[in-house]
Design brief:
130 residues; mainly beta; seven-stranded mixed β-sheet; four-stranded antiparallel β-sheet; globular
Length: 130
């Protein structure tokens, strides 16, 4: 059974930083494209960032471009989301997702939609105070 687990969320003041981690059990992530999404109360789940299985391509939502960085360490079976210059509007539950189709060749922009992913974590809360 594949399980993804996010960690690193918490409460931070505006302008601060957090680094989220996503680790997997039951599956090696090194062949999967990975993504981060977020969902604020009463809103839909929104795309944040994606990274190709090789790590060679990344893609970001306009709202986080220049502030967030997605990366991966395949040796540790972990994907990260470094979040800098956090704003109150970044407050949400953050979810990581794994594609599940090894070494696919879709363009990185394909991974901005939730249907591109087969596995999801339970989420970690990020709260940014003003």
């Amino acid at each position: 059974q594949v399980q993804l687990a996010e960690s690193g969320g918490g409460l931070v003041q505006a302008g601060g930083s957090l680094r989220l981690s996503c680790t997997a059990s039951g599956r090696t992530l090194s062949n999967d494209a990975m993504g981060w999404f977020r969902q604020a109360p009463g809103k839909e789940r929104d795309f944040v960032a994606a990274i190709s299985w090789s790590g060679g391509s990344t893609y970001y939502a306009d709202s986080v471009k220049g502030r967030f960085t997605i990366s991966r360490d395949n040796a540790k079976n972990t994907v990260y989301l470094q979040m800098n210059s956090l704003k109150p509007e970044d407050t949400a539950v953050y979810y990581c997702a794994a594609e599940g189709r090894s070494r696919s060749r879709y363009p990185i922009t394909y991974y901005s939609t939730p249907r591109a992913y087969d596995y999801w974590g339970q989420g970690t809360q990020v709260t940014v105070s003003s």
